[in-house]
Amino acid sequence: MNRLQKFGVPLVAVILFLLFWEGIVWINDWPNYVMASPSDLPAAYERFWKLFLVMGWQTLWRTVLGLVLAVIFGTVIGMIMGFSQIARQGLYPLLVGFNAVPKATLVPVIALLFIGQHDFNTVLMAFLISFFPIAVSVGIGLSTLEPEYRDILRALGASKVTIFWKIALPKTLPEFFGALKVSVTLAFIGTNLVEIVSPHGRGLGALFKSGETNGDYPLMFAVLIALAVLGIVLYYAVVALEKIFAGWAERPAN
To answer: Using CA atoms, how far apart are residues 186 and 207, in angstroms rounded to an integer?
Structure first.
C-alpha cells in the first residue's frame, strides 16, 4: 500500500495538473499561439522527437556535470566553513553576495570571457548557480556538531579525519541531500539560461528559442514539459541516493 501510494499520489497530481491546464485553456478559448494546451503537445513531440532526444541529452549531461562539480566544490567550501569560524565569517558574506547577483546577468560576461566554449560555459553556469545551497548546508551541519562528541573522540585518540568520517559526515548527510534536491532544479535553470540567453544551437534551451522565433508555441511548451520531466527524474535519482546513504534519518509517517 505504501509503495502504491508513493507512485500513485504523484501520478494523480500530474494528471490533475494537466486536466486543470487543459480546462483553463478551454474555458478562455485561447488559441495555441497564445497558450498551448496539453492536447497540443503530443503532435510537437511526434514531429520533433529526434531533436528532443539529441538536445535533451545535451542539456542533461551538461546539467549533471555542473551538479557534480557543485557537489565537490560546495562540500569542500562547506567543510572549510564548518571547521573554521574565521573562514565562515569571511566566506559567508561573499557567498551570499555572489548568490544575490542575478545569474542571467552573468551569462553575457561568461560568454565574452570564454568565447566559443559553449559546453564549458553551460557547465560553468550550472555549477555557479547550484553550489551555494550545498556549501551552506554542509557548513551549517558541521558548525553545529556537538563539541562533546569531538572532545570524547579526541580523548580516545581519534584524529580529525576520523572525527569527520565517523561523526561529522553522517550528521551532515540529511542536510546535504536536502540541499542537493534544491541544487538539482537550480542546475537545470543555469543550463537553460546559457542555452537561451547565449544561444549556440545546443540543448533544450536552443529548441525552446527556435520555437519562440518561429512562433511555434506547442513546441515551446513541449520543451518546458521535457525540462520538467528531466528535473523530476534527476530529483528522484537524488532521493534514491538519499535512501541508500541517509535512509536512517527518515522518520516514519504517523
So the answer is: 20
